[in-house]
Structures are given as structure tokens and as C-alpha cells.
Amino acid sequence: MDAIRAAVIGTGFIGPAHVEALRRLGVEVVGIAGSSPQRARPKAAELNIKKVYQDWRELVADPSVNVVHITTPN
Question: pTM here?
Fold first, then answer.
């Protein structure tokens, strides 16, 4: 594997914190999923994330994702 590619589930306070931490480590963040695509799109644009998933199932099924960060509330 050449590079680690991550995706994040959750667009609240902790989601963007994980995106920033992943990027600082050199991990590419390829996508994000929220409670709905409509809520995730603005956050993806703000964080410069290209892919917005319809839901967590689509994210988990994406073969380009090596690591998933789940940042939803407990």
C-alpha cells in the first residue's frame, strides 16, 4: 500500500478535528458522511473534501478507503 486513505463519518465538532489530525499525519482524507448528504456537503466544501457519501454504508463499501474514523456522538 502506497498511501493511507481515510474517510470520516460525522460532521460535528470532532469530525473536522479528525480531518485536521489525519492531514497533519500525511493521511489523505478522501470523503465524509454525515447524517444526510445535504448536511455533509457544506462541511465537505469547508474542509476541502471532494467526496460526500450518501450514508455510512456507501463510505464503508468504498474500496479506495483504507481507514474509517467514526466521529459521531456516543
Answer: 0.93
pLDDT, mean over the chain? 95
Contact between residue 69 and residue 22 where contact means Cβ atoms under 8 Å apart: yes
Q: Where are the alpha helices (DSSP H) in the chain?
A: 14-24, 37-47, 56-61
With CA atoms as reference, report the closest residue to 7 among 73, 56, 74, 72. 56
The CA-atom distances, in angstroms, between 45 and each of 38, 48, 59 are: 12, 5, 17
**Residues 3-21, mean pLDDT to the nearest whole number:** 96
Cα dihedral 10/51/40/56 (nearest 10): -50
Place of cell 457519501: 53
